[in-house]
Amino acid sequence: MAHTLAGRAETPTQAKVLKLLRDEGPFSRVQLADRLGVSRTTMASEVNRLTELGLAEGAGPAASRGGRRSTLVDLSSDLRFVGIDIGATSISVAVTDGRLAVLGDRQHVDMDVRLGPEHVLGAALELTRKLLAEHRIDRPSGVGVGVPGPVDFHSGVPVSPPIMPGWDGYPVRDAVARELGCPALLDNDVNLMALGEEHSGVAKSVPSFLFVKIGTGIGCGIVIGGELYRGVDGCAGDIGHIRVEEFGPTCACGNSGCLEAYFGGSALARDAMAAVRGGRSPALAALLEEKGELSAEDVALAVAQGDAHAVQIIRDGGHRVGWVLASLVSFFNPGLIVIGGRVARLGHPLLAEIRGVVYRRSLPLATGNLPVVLSEMGDDAGVVGAAAMISEAVYAAA
Amino acid sequence: MAHTLAGRAETPTQAKVLKLLRDEGPFSRVQLADRLGVSRTTMASEVNRLTELGLAEGAGPAASRGGRRSTLVDLSSDLRFVGIDIGATSISVAVTDGRLAVLGDRQHVDMDVRLGPEHVLGAALELTRKLLAEHRIDRPSGVGVGVPGPVDFHSGVPVSPPIMPGWDGYPVRDAVARELGCPALLDNDVNLMALGEEHSGVAKSVPSFLFVKIGTGIGCGIVIGGELYRGVDGCAGDIGHIRVEEFGPTCACGNSGCLEAYFGGSALARDAMAAVRGGRSPALAALLEEKGELSAEDVALAVAQGDAHAVQIIRDGGHRVGWVLASLVSFFNPGLIVIGGRVARLGHPLLAEIRGVVYRRSLPLATGNLPVVLSEMGDDAGVVGAAAMISEAVYAAA
Fold first, then answer.
1. What range does the domain containing A29 cover?
2. Which CATH number covers residue B194?
3. How much is the ipTM here?
4. B2 at A interface, C-beta within 8 A
5. Which residues form a coiled coil (chains A, B) (predicted)?
């Protein structure tokens, strides 16, 4: 069966129905009317319209409660969203159903984002078309795209992204929409990972939380009352360039002492090389001997082997991340902090250090009920979040 | 005429009407119906109900547009709100009309908040009753109260406030409501100053901004989309205890290196004394000779006299405030930063230093359109904000 593009919700009630079906599953018309506080007549006509638009469909009889047997309403089984997660060194693509469940396997290729938009988007679209063909989808209902840098959400373009040369102002959203013939939205990868956690991860049902990505870059997604907070210019959450020390190492952004200059991917590689040169880490020395170069992943490998100096590198980094997060907890008083991204896979030594600083340095009132946890979504957070972003737009009243 | 307690809005439409009348002045019923997108019949009955509730009243004929002459609707001229601003060293009280204009003069007494809730609230209520009698008000429509420490907004009590011994858990809101016989709400003074700026100050019509108070303590009010953001536990904005240096001076909160331990009121007094002892400030030495002690105000006086070391104290403090604000700009991407509070009266040397650091240290995208300005409301921000808080509740649908 060839899936085709569906319409968009036309009224606030239709939008609420679609989000309720996405987040809580099929309901009868009567249940929908009760849940949303509208008359049964109104609900019946709204559901009919959603069916005409290709967004909803019948889903078998509801459990009988006496009287006339009613039919369950569900999201259309034809709905297909695409999530494209462009990272600094790879591209991931997934297809989801209307409820944001990933269909089949997420596709993944290594790709250096510095190769520029034509090359990287070309590869992302090729991967997407392959996946659409496998799932026999002509045109998806919408596609969400994430990139590892600041984005002007309203115009759908990257804005002066430090690690993405050639992408500044490139019309990524419109190019993807045109190529795939469906609605598209662009945001930065960290915001999308936060949305992924909100829909399918540990932040599910937590209305206000911070998602902190520690990978090649360090960034933060902010969710307030179930909505992504993007800031006035769309660049909220840029915590990688918060100063940690006044006279620290120079950062790619041109300033010095930024958090990312201490604990981003290239900072870890730099510290790993320094450890080998100083003769302080047998495990890292062996890895360098074997591979010819060292990356953040090698620090993780050395930590897994119990290398004391590698553990110290992670503790120092976790300590600095903790200072920054303690400031944000004092300022923002979130309900949950989720740590994700590649470096976060270092797991408990890192988490323990971050927690220690956050709990010691923040106002007791703000940390009394504040869990600080690791993401459990791995590489799925970005693609699921990208699909979630476009589903919000398709399910919202135009 | 004795003013009496009015009712509260009963429907979302009534609430919208009241806020529109408060913020933009009298309208005809037809204009109100058009502005809020409801039928004229519905609006007529909603306005009648607001009049019955004592919240709205007729306000003379509208300009004729042909056809039947219509009547303007305005807020009831009987509406009276009280704003009580309890600071670390003083109490201010004002009475406003329904549009939050201060009637007559704001009343002010010196009062040490450390004398405890019975004593301080007793003085605040005495001042309030005197003002109500002057304005011939039996019972105000509502009273807002601000205190200089963290507040559990939902239960209306201070929570472990560092500079308010004896106030922890004291039922301030309920005590004030009982004594004055009207609805009351309690929040921290900084949040209320932010509301004051939003309604009557430089932040008017700016939907998302930060208000930074620099006084005895240092705190931040966060407004997002026209609403105060209080955080999950109601303690968002506690920026005075953000770490500036790992091994800095000990703070009243028990940690070290907090912003407030460098630039709060007692930190400035400490630095002023040290300057005199070190023979570095003739102006501060003369002030100490004259008064027997030194406070933050004396640093301001010495700056006004052009004392070089006093200026340096302010520059150093402004530099540290700037570092913290740069972090918050990177994280939060606000549309405006307003600096208020006593120390902020130091004016341009302080502002210049703060601006320098914020503009240099934040992402260019976040500061391209970011004004950093001084408050122009002086001591009115707290009382107007307190009145604004309770007006929001009275004007909101129950």
1. 12-75
2. 3.30.420.40
3. 0.87
4. no
5. none
